[in-house]
Every structure is written in structure tokens, then in C-alpha cells.
Here is the input.
Amino acid sequence: RPLVGNLIGEDHANYVLMYNMLTGIRIAVSRCQAKIKRPLTEQDFTARHKYSFDIVGNELTPSARYDFKFKDYAPWVFRELREDHFSLDPADYLLSLTSKYILSELTSPGKSGSFFYFSRDYRFIIKTIRHAEHKFLLRVLPQYWEHVKANPHTLLSRFYGLHRVKLPRGQKIHFVIMNNLFPPHKDIHESYDLKGSTVGRIVPPAKLEQNPRAVQKDLNWIDSNRVLELGPEKRALLTEQLRRDSEMLRDLGVMDYSLLVGLHWGNRGNRENVRGSTLRVFEPSVPPIRRKTTQTKDGRSPEAIAMRRIMRASDPHQLGTTLDLPDSPPSSMQTQPHPTQDRDHFLFYQDEGGLQATDESNEEMDVIYYLGIIDILTPYGGLKKCEHFWKGLSADRHKISPVPPSEYADRFFGFMKAIMRGGEGGSRFKAE
Ligand code: ATP
Ligand code: CA
Ligand code: CA
Here is the structure.
């Protein structure tokens, strides 16, 4: 699946959904943000805030274009995650997502039927999830939060928010907001979705020829003899974090997750920048590269200050019945000194938003890796057990993708160790 999205215009089938999602986020998040920060309580993990939007508006919600309901789950928990653990600037977050209603949709959603949307600056991904995944995330939120607190350098998906839109006919759409592992300003020349399973885990060469940017799988990695080039220190650190994260996922009882790996070669540059050109289509005047930014004394850009003002204004006590953003909202591309600054103090995301390859003597090599563990909300339940049984009839029961969580975690971790330099390679994982 190419990581390039289609811009959602007013004529797009999902325009209303996008509008409702972004309006809901804008109001709900700023509502929470307008209050004074306080320590989390147990109730915060089960809290849900409801909003009802319509074209008239009321004292709680400004008028909106469409009628819909919006639910914000555990807002205080996600606020703390964003601010204290994922080091996002609150104003920046809202700006990126909602300063203009622009999202792009990934062209071909995966088997699961989820939809993926990029924020217009490409930093955030909105993923629609199934009700079961939604319930699961809420259930394990305390453990997830504990894990993130104890593991500031975790590779697990960063969840920034969990919400639901309900349309007038009763249809409910659950979605999460998470980090885009791939950077806005660097071209990803090759990418892999790795599970440690090798049965059927291949994108056929013919398909790759058609689309060289397709996300490849385990067997493609093995067959092209790829290696994660990391010097001894980085290797040790990454291995340790992968160990902790996969133990966590084992304890949660999930499986089917992947290590997503994107590679950027410095010498191949950004010339074939598919994403870049798409972004340029969105915003003709703002190329997706590092930009100088005008900042005020306290280091905040004028845009961030404007957003703060808007956030304050959405405090119900200060708000009239309508709230609309200024006609020409600030351009969020300019708010950041550089596009991946929020990642700077995370071990595995600090080199241009990723992890620079190094050789055995820690000299830099000309590749940056962008990696993280994604799709972590699938418990080993009825459906996956069934799949385990049926796929196991025609192939090695231990090499197929659906296996019980502890076996999955061991195999996943083993595979990732194997594909680092000095490891034994991934071939052992191959089906005969
Ligand atoms: P399935 O269950 O069929 O695997 P899914 O709908 O649950 O699919 P994911 O596995 O979460 O989807 O993601 C599908 C693809 O989307 C990934 O292989 C990757 O290319 C891209 N993707 C997902 N999450 C991210 C992320 N956080 N950053 C960058 N790309 C991502
Ligand atoms: Ca997946
Ligand atoms: Ca999935």
C-alpha cells in the first residue's frame, strides 16, 4: 500500500466524516486543554465526554455544518500521554489536525477495513478502528499508560486520542490518533511490515515492479538480504526496548502486530519524493522541508499563540454560541523549527525523526531507519484462533501469522534480533 494519500475534498465520500472528526477533536481537545492540569485519577481512565453538534449550536458546542455526536474517551489520560510522555505541544497538536480541514486518505485500506488519514502536515495519522479494538484499547489503557511511563523510548504506537463519531442514522465510527512513523520531510525509499511470520508474507516481485514503493513483508526482507545496520550500542538499546515492548504485548494478550521499518538513503535524497509532491499539491506555497520560523520571546510561534487563544476561547464559560476559526488560519507548516522536533529526545527517533544506521565502530552510515511497532490492538480471540487452525492445516503451525500471544511475541522478538547486524539472519524463520 503506497503511503500517499488522496486529498479529501468536499466532493469526497468521506468529507462529512472528516469534517465531523476534526470538529469533534477541535472542540473536545481544546475543552480539556483549557482546564488546569491535575494529576490523573482512576476515574480518568473510564471517563467519556459527550458532545452533540448541530447547525444551530448551543452553549457547549458551537454550530457545525452537520448534525452528529462526538465522544471523547479518557481525555485526561490522553492529554497526559501527549504532553508528558510524547512531548507534544498542545497547541501544535490542534493546529496540525484542525487549523485547516485538510486530511488525505490512504488510497487502499488494508484487509481490516480500517481507513487511514494523514493530518495535512503529515505528522499524525487518524485510523478508524473496529469496535472490538476500541473496547480493547480502553480496557488496557492503564497498562499502556504505565508502560509508556516506564519506557519513554518505547517503540509502540503512540496513541494521542481515542474518539467516536456517531452519525444521525446511528452509525458509529471509532478512531484513534497516532504518530506517523514516517517523517514529513524525508522520502522513504523502501518500507517493510515485519511480523516474524513467513507463511505468505511476501509482496510478489511483479507487484513490486509495478509499485516499487509498496510496503514489503518478511520474505521480501529475507530474500533481499537486508540487515538492520546498527553499531553495538544502538543494537543493544534497540534489542532491549524490543524485548520490553514485546513482553508487554505478550502480557496484553495481543498478536498480529508488526515492526514497520522505513528506509531513507541519504544518497538517494528526496528527488523521487512522492509524498513531497503530494504535499506540494495540497499547499503550493509551502514545500515540506525545514523552515525558518518566526518566533516570539518565549519560543512560541505566532500561530501557536493564536491557537492558544482559540483554545481558551472554546472554554464554555468564555464562549458565545458560535466558534469558528479565522478565515485564513495560520499555516501549521511554519510552526515548527523543524518537522520532527517533538521526537528529538526519543532515542530511536532523534536523527531526523528516525534512527541513523551505524557501523561496528559507531560511524554513521548513509541510511536512516524509521521504525515502530504498529497494529497492536488485536487480542487473540475467536477469529484469530480459527485462523490459526485453518492456516495451520496447510502450513507450519508455528510459521503462520496467527499464533497465540506468547509464541507470537517470542517469534517477533527473535526475528528482529536475527535481522540486525551480527544476528543469524531471518532465513531460519522461513517455511520449508
Ligand atoms: P491489517 O489488520 O490487515 O494488517 P490494518 O488496517 O490494521 O491492517 P495496520 O496494520 O495498522 O492496518 O497498517 C497498515 C499499513 O499502514 C502498515 O503496513 C503501514 O504501511 C501503514 N501504517 C500503519 N500505521 C502507521 C504509522 N503509525 N506510521 C506510518 N505508517 C503506518
Ligand atoms: Ca497489520
Ligand atoms: Ca489490524
